[in-house]
Amino acid sequence: MTERFRRHLLLISAGLLAALVFWIDSIAEYNSAISILYLAVLVLVSAAGSGNVVVRAAQVCVVLTILAWAVVHLHQPSVASALRCLSACMAISVTAALLLSRKRLEATKQDLGSSRSEVELFANSVPFVLWRSNPRGEIEYLNESWTTVTGLDRWTVLEGQRYNEVVHPDDMAVLVETVTTAVANRTMTDLKVRVRQADGSYRWMQIYDRPALSPLTGQVERYGGLSDVHDEVVAKEELQQLRKELEASNERLEQRVNERTTELMRTERRYSGLFDVSNMTFAEMDFSAAEAILDQIKSRGVTDLRSYMTAHPEEFARALSAIQTTRVNDALARMMGYESVSELVASPTAQFAEDGPEVLLRQLEMYFYGVDHIDGRTVLAGKDGRRIPVYSTATRLPDGLHLSSYVNLSDQERIEEMRQAAQAELARANRVATVGAFSASIAHELNQPITSMLMDAQTGLRLVARGSPEIETLTRILQRVAKTAQRVAAIVQRTRDNIVAGRRAVKAIDIRRLASDTRDLLDQDLKRADVELEILCEEAVPMIKGDPVELQQVFVNLVNNATDAMRDQPDTRRITLAIAAEEVAVRVRVTDTGPGIPDEHIEKLFEPFFTTKATGIGMGLQICRSAVEAMGGQLTVTNLASGGACFSFDLPLALKEPA
Ligand code: ADP
Question: Which residues line ligand 1 (CB under 6 A)?
Fold first, then answer.
């Protein structure tokens, strides 16, 4: 039976009952008492219809009651019957009113029920845990999300008030304290704690709980909830961590930048200090504008800058005029004869050197080919046409700047002149020494022939004094004197040949003889130094070509050096002068049993003025080397494995005279 059908049935029954009551009431004289039955009609109508229908039904019932009274009593009305009719009408009205109010009550109840389930539905459909707690903070209601989030049954939790169990132990203290304070002061709770989830993990959740006056109970209750803010908290923590790291690295960076800046400033100060007060000459030029021109040239596919500039002089002039001297120091101005730096800067850049454009072209090439450093010789054009030969270096700095420095070679050239003078003087001194040594040897050599001549002369004189001398004997004596005199003349001639200064005579030399002559020459010195000089030479060694005076000077020098080297040596002091014939030359080796040459000296040995002796002048070996070179050989030095130095050179053979 459907609801509608039931309602129709009830309404029809009510209608029928009303009709029956009216019929009985109007035909039978029951004094309206029967009309009380209309109440049953109203009850039926109220069970089936709305409030309005009940009101209508009540009106109809009242009309029917009055109508039935009129039918029965109007011809003979009585107060009693009218009162009964009235009380019946009132009973109907009161009943209708009661039914109506019950109906309204039911409707309200229904509304209440539906709105309650609506609230419940709403509370359970939001993705937050929601609760209501009493003024003491004890939770009395939890929505279904609680179970979804924590995995715990909400009713069990509520029963035991065990909702705090899901809070992370580390957050418990702060939670209890915050909630207690908020409840006591009736203030809001706003706090983030970690809450254990259904899967056992903890997630950060925001607790929001605030007091509110309940319209139902009239008491202050608390309404609150939990929302998942885990991702936000983690992201924030990561962000903070990142920020900390960034700050730290920023700090480090700043520190580095500061340090670097200080260092740079120090370098800059040092650089400019060096620049301004240095005795070294410096010029700083700005090539940046010229480099832009070079870039254009390069972009045209030019690979040979020099040829290009030669072919395009106007372009070259343009590049040169783009170069600017930005800074020069006092030392450079002084070197070039200017009073001040400003006087120098005023003159055009390309005119600072005799071959200024060439120097600048080389500097342009540095950029063009990516070279950082060049050097070379040039002549600076100073004030009033002053010429300053210099050794110049140019270095590329950042930002198109070039730093050049010039070393004045005027002094160096003077030194070179002095060196040459010293060498000539030394050669002369050496010859004088040789003369000295020769004098001794001449005295020695001449002593014997002169003594023999003297004796011969005395014998002749004695024979003459005795009278009638034998002509034959006298002739023999005079012949011997003449021969001895010839020998003396030869000795003198040879000596003269040897010592005449400046006469370099290349001739065939009997080197074996020269060697032994030298030993004779130095005999006294060698004895004093306790040095043994051994000459190793085959008898048939071929003649060589050279200047005998110079070659002897070489021998004397090498032997003297070896003697000096062994002077403080307790054990054997031996010099060996070995002469050996080779295919086209004779090889000479002068070795000693001294300490040899330290490795660090070996390179410098032949440099002028290199000496390790307190009284040395360091020219001997240089002169030897040039003498040997002049004769077509090469003087070199090595250390012997057995210790001691070995100086050696080859001398070319003297070609046989064509027959
Ligand atoms: P000086 O004799 O005036 O020093 P030299 O040019 O002749 O000039 O020699 C240069 C240096 O070479 C000497 O001072 C010495 O140190 C070194 N030297 C030359 N010969 C020898 C040698 N035989 N053994 C060791 N050192 C030598």
Answer: 561-562, 565, 592, 594, 597, 605, 610-613, 616-621, 645
Q: Which of 533, 557, 560, 561 best tests ligand 1's pocket when mutated (most atoms within 8 Å of CB)?
A: 561
* Residues 148, 101 within the same domain: no
Q: How far is the CA of 439 from the centre of ligand 1 (A)?
A: 26
Distance 551 CA to ligand 1 centre (A): 18
pLDDT along the chain (659 residues), means of 10: 86 91 79 77 88 90 89 84 87 91 90 86 86 86 90 89 90 92 90 94 93 81 90 91 87 83 73 67 90 94 93 93 86 86 72 84 93 88 86 87 86 72 64 57 65 85 85 88 81 63 71 89 82 92 87 88 91 93 93 94 86 79 84 93 94 70
CATH code at position 255? 3.30.450.20
Query: Which ligand 1 atom minimizes the distance to the CA of 592?
Result: 23
Domain at 527, CATH number: 3.30.565.10
pTM over the 0.85 mark: no
Does residue 419 sit within a domain? Answer: no
Residues 628 and 516 in one domain: yes
CA of 611 to the centre of ligand 1 (A): 6
For residue 44, which of 112, 2, 99 has the smallest C-alpha distance? Answer: 99
Residue closest via CA to ligand 1's atom 22 equals 562
Domain span at residue 89 reads 3-114
* DSSP string computed for 147-211: HHHH-S-HHHHHHHT-GGGGB-HHHHHHHHHHHHHHHHHT--EEEEEEEE-TTS-EEEEEEEEEE
Testing ligand 1's pocket by substitution, the residue of 591, 611, 623 carrying the most ligand atoms inside 8 A of its CB is 611
Q: Which residue has the tokens 């002469």?
A: 579
* Protein residue with least CA distance to atom 7, ligand 1: 620
Q: Whose CA is nearest to atom 14 of ligand 1?
A: 611
Probe residue for ligand 1, chosen from 621, 638, 646 as the CB with the greatest number of ligand atoms within 8 Å: 621
In the prediction, which pLDDT does 501 show?
Answer: 45
Find the 574 Cα to ligand 1 centroid distance in Å: 16
Instruction: Give the Å distance between the CA of 322 and the centre of ligand 1.
Output: 55
Q: How far is the CA of 529 from the centre of ligand 1 (A)?
A: 16
Task: Please answer whether residues 203 and 166 qualify as being in contact, where contact means their C-beta atoms are separated by less than 8 angstroms.
Answer: no
| Element of type H or E holding 379 | strand 373-381
* Strand intervals (E) in 292-361: 324-328
For the sheet with 387-396, list strands across it: 324-328, 281-286, 401-408, 387-396, 373-381
- Asked if residue 561 is part of any domain, the answer here is yes
Query: How many structural domains is the chain composed of?
Result: 4
Q: Are residues 103 and 167 in the same domain?
A: no
Residue 326, strand partner residues: none
Tell me if 155 is assigned to some domain: yes
